[in-house]
Amino acid sequence: MSSHSATAFGGGRAGGADSTNDGAAAPSERAPPLRAGGYAAWKPSMNVYLQRHAAADVHTEPQTQEEWLRDSSNVAAWNKQTLAAARIAALGVGTGAASDSGSAQGGAGGSSGVQPKEEALSTEAKAGRALVSAYVERSRQAFGRIYSAMPEDLRLQVAHLPQGWAFGLWQWLERKFQSTEADHVGLLLRRWIHPSMNEGESFDAYRARVNEVAALLKHAKEEHSPAMYAYVLLQRLQSRYDPVVLALQSGSLLKNPAAVDWDAVTALINTHERKEHQMANDAGIASAKAMAAARSPEWSAPKGAAHKQEDRQPHRQDHGMAAASRPRASV
User: Which domain range does residue 172 map to?
Assistant: First the structure.
């Protein structure tokens, strides 16, 4: 990795004071892990996680590598100066005590390493140093948290990035998984032109897939029209959504494609899904009851009907005997 050591993250650990040794957040709340094929879902979750941990957009605010190296180097130098001043102050109040202590140690054949007191900084300089130092610390914390969420194979691929440069690491992940190269854009266009809702897939999951491709195309400067977005999102659903789509088309929510409230549309479709699911459950319960009733002996032929059937048999036999005993008429 770069010449910056792991201690640059604060406290000698990659993630700072509230992190574990591998740069993760405190055990009570670890960073969401980046899994294979899950970058699109991981990115917004990780962004929320970083913002909740005081990143303040440090990972998305543009900063060149040279700017980062300069800032981190300056902060390191300022910290060294502050530490030297603190050591002087710790030897005694005023420069006299420090000089006496230095003379005593020098007479013993050693060097105290005490530096002369520097000129007092102006208010503006102090404020500027505080801002830059806070920025560098936030970047180091964010870098450690992003790094801890990455799998081992990806960690090996970012060894060339300076440690602590959160913007550089965030951009590297975006370029890797959201490339705008021509071949990748072609794949995205194919995914956009031929989308389809999978069997058993919820509308929320399908919408998330459509939004992912739409965002990638927008990033590649191939943004779709609002009407095209509405078509892809509603006309490629499973046939079981036809009733709610027809209701939407005849209503007012889709009148202006550029001003569609897609959260309201989604809420309506979710209601349709819940009703459909409830109807399926009710039908399943009714079918199960019918099958159970068919197997139950209580649902066999009524006993009264069986007795009547049995009573008819002797009656038929008696009727036949009576007919046989009658004298035949002579011819």
Answer: 6-89+122-177
Give the pair of three-digit tokens for residue 25.
Answer: 């957040």
The count of domains in the chain is: 2
Q: What pLDDT is recorded for position 131?
A: 95
Taking alpha carbons only, the member of 3, 6, 2, 1 closest to residue 140 is 6
The count of C-alpha atoms lying within 13 angstroms of the C-alpha of 223, restricted to the half-sphere facing its C-beta, is: 5
* 226 and 131 co-located in one domain: no
pLDDT of residue 23: 42
- pLDDT tens column, 289-316: 777 777 766 555 555 555 555 555 555 5
Taking CA atoms, 70 is separated from 16, 24, 122, 268, in Å, by 20, 26, 21, 53
What pLDDT does residue 110 have? 44
Residues 6+ apart with CB under 8 A from 2: 160, 161, 162, 163
